Amino acid sequence: MPQERTEAVVLRGVDFSETSRIVTFLTPDRGRLACMARGVRRKKSPLASTLDTFNRVEIVYYWKDGRAVQNLAEAALLDGFGGIKADLDKATFAALPLELVYKAVHENEPSLELYATFVHGLESLTRWEGDARAHMLWQVLQLMSVAGFEPALDTCVACGRDVETPQGFAYEGGVTCGACRSDVRLTPEQAAGLRALAGSRDGCPAIKNPAALYPLVHRYAARQIEADLRSVRVIDQMFI
Ligand SMILES: [Zn+2]
């Protein structure tokens, strides 16, 4: 069985037996990858902290076509993103882009750009000193864009007309003009915030009132990937 080596980010770990855990990674070449990590639950196993959620790691695994869970051989920590985990606000909001990636990425599908965007977002959040909610919205919109779910922000999603000042937003695909049906009304401030967040590839821009954009962005993301986002409920319990 061939061994493969890759960089990866830990998306999730689910205990499997008294000593093993199934760990799901995001990888550049194989998309979402689940591996059986044997011995990780033993006392004093160095693997336990290495395979903590959010960690960027280098892994070696045995690849077998068609198998749902591969066997992990080795794992080494590259970046633990301590600046996120030590900050409750950052860690809580960061769970949403993480869950989005877990649910939007397919198994065994090259995901180089998405991987790079996700890691860039985590590195940016580690250093971020502004509003953690704004940063999360920026990460979500950047990830949606590279995953092929970029919202239309300059043309009406229903009739295709150019819209300088959008009047509404449809979760189906983006902004709407005054004549077309929308799911929610959009204020000029919200429209400007969305355009700034979506258009800024390198880093999170300063936006006014991120809380007003939050429901719109997480509902749009959930509609596009056709999945419920559990992290939204955790965020809402903590911050609303
Ligand atoms: Zn229209």
Write the SSE topology.
Layout: E1 3-15, E2 21-27, E3 31-37, H1 46-50, E4 56-62, E5 70-79, H2 82-85, H3 88-104, H4 112-127, H5 132-146, E6 168-170, E7 174-176, E8 184-185, H6 188-199, H7 210-225, H8 230-239
Parallel strand pairs: 3-5
Antiparallel strand pairs: 1-2, 1-4, 2-3, 4-5, 6-7, 6-8
Bound molecules: zinc ion (ZN).
Zinc ion (ZN) is lined by residues 156, 158-159, 161, 176-177, 179-180.
Overview of the molecule:
Helices cover 40% and strands 22% of the residues. It is α+β, with helices and mostly antiparallel strands and 240 residues long. The chain has two domains: 78 residues, Beta Barrel (OB fold (Dihydrolipoamide Acetyltransferase, E2P)); 157 residues, Up-down Bundle (de novo design (two linked rop proteins)). Strands 1-2-3-5-4 form a five-stranded mixed beta barrel. α3 runs antiparallel to α4, α3 runs parallel beside α5 and α3 packs antiparallel against α8. The mean pLDDT is 96. The structure holds zinc ion. Zinc ion binds next to loops. The site of zinc ion (ZN) has 8 residues, from loops.
Task: Summarize the entry for a quick read.
This protein is an alpha+beta fold and 240 residues long. The protein has helices at 46-50, 82-85, 88-104, 112-127, 132-146, 188-199, 210-225, 230-239, and strands at 3-15, 21-27, 31-37, 56-62, 70-79, 168-170, 174-176, 184-185. The protein has eight helices and eight strands.
- Through-space gap between termini: 50 Å
At the fourth level of CATH, the homologous superfamily of the largest domain is Recombination protein O, C-terminal domain
- The CATH topology label of the largest domain is de novo design (two linked rop proteins)
Task: Let me know the average pLDDT.
Answer: 96
Which secondary-structure class do the elements indicate?
alpha+beta
